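Predict structure. Chain length: 71.
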Amino acid sequence: MIITPIQTEKLLNTNITFSLLSFSMLITRLKVIYEKDSSSENLQNCANEINAFLQKYGVIMERDCVTISKL
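Prediction complete.
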């Protein structure tokens, strides 16, 4: 699963509970970074980090991937 910057922005601006704690921690960290700098370049960096995580752990995040894909 690959998410777009638009989906990333929605993900960073909503409060969704994820089943995988490490993913929730990643999103929390990226929310803080994005709040400080909401430039398109930073948004793309956040999307890249999320996509890297999803490529590695997406298999064990099936429920969360469904939630993310609806954004």
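Summary: The chain has a mean pLDDT of 92.
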